[in-house]
Structures are given as structure tokens and as C-alpha cells.
Design a protein that fits this description.
Elements lengths: L9 H4 L31 H17 L2 H9 L25 H17 L25
Helix pairs in contact: 2-4
Length: 139
């Protein structure tokens, strides 16, 4: 255990992480890599990385998608990651179906990424002023 059980009770809460990495109580703590797939985790490292970037950007910008995600993560038991395909043993508590997991991560990543506030390059803020190009002789 690397965190005090006062902060995160890993014995009881690790299996309830949304997408096997997002705790219900915190928005500034992620557990990346606490899952097992029959094909290994190497296939999903890039997918997880993209999710973490989208998650952190949405959190930083407090987007509407972020607010929705905070509500969704409370219902991790409704998410089908293929976990019912495996034996119900302690060893298999963190097993997921690779393709269902990738699909769920990609879906959440796209939703978190869509509503990130990105000002258009052509928009001018209220305080900006147009600057006319200066043409003159080059010496």
C-alpha cells in the first residue's frame, strides 16, 4: 500500500474504480495500470495516456463534460468492461475484456475532449485591437 487507508482504502475500493482507474471520492487522483487483460496491458498504454491527458485538461478547464463525467464515475458498477466473463476470484477482480475496455476508454476520452474550451484563432477578445501591418522600405 502506497497511500494511507484514510485517503484510499485500496483493499475495499480498488475494485470499484471507474474505468479501473478513477476513484469516486477524488478528482485529482488516478490509478493507471491497475487492471489485467488476457492480452496484457501493452496494447492499451497509448489509449490510457490519451484518456489521462483529456481527463486532466477537462478537469483544469472545468468543462460541462467534466461535470457529467463526475456524475458518471459514481456508477462504475453499471459499466460493462467484460468483467463477468472471468471467474469471480480475487485474482480475477481486475480482469477486463481488452476490446470493451478500449471502447469505453476511447468513448470517455472523446467526450472529455469534445467540450474543451478552445478559442478560435480568428476570434478577438474584447480587449484586443487590430494591428495593421506596417509596410515600408527595407534597409
Amino acid at each position: 500500500p502506497f497511500l494511507s487507508t484514510d485517503i484510499f482504502d485500496w483493499k475495499h475500493e480498488l475494485s470499484s474504480l471507474f474505468l479501473r482507474m478513477v476513484p469516486k471520492k477524488y478528482d485529482d487522483l488516478l490509478f493507471v495500470g491497475y487492471l489485467n487483460t488476457p492480452s496484457g496491458i501493452g496494447n492499451i498504454v497509448n489509449t490510457l495516456s490519451r484518456f489521462v491527458v483529456a481527463y486532466l485538461k477537462a478537469r483544469d478547464q472545468q468543462t460541462p463534460a467534466w461535470d457529467t463525467f463526475q456524475k458518471i464515475k459514481l456508477q462504475s458498477d453499471l459499466l460493462d468492461l467484460g468483467q463477468d466473463r472471468f471467474m469471480h476470484t480475487e485474482r480475477h477482480n481486475y480482469e477486463v475484456d481488452l476490446w470493451k475496455y478500449i471502447k469505453a476508454i476511447n468513448f470517455m476520452t472523446s467526450k472529455l475532449s469534445l467540450s474543451q474550451v478552445v478559442p478560435a484563432a480568428t476570434e478577438k477578445s474584447a480587449t484586443s485591437r487590430a494591428v495593421e501591418p506596417q509596410y515600408g522600405a527595407v534597409s
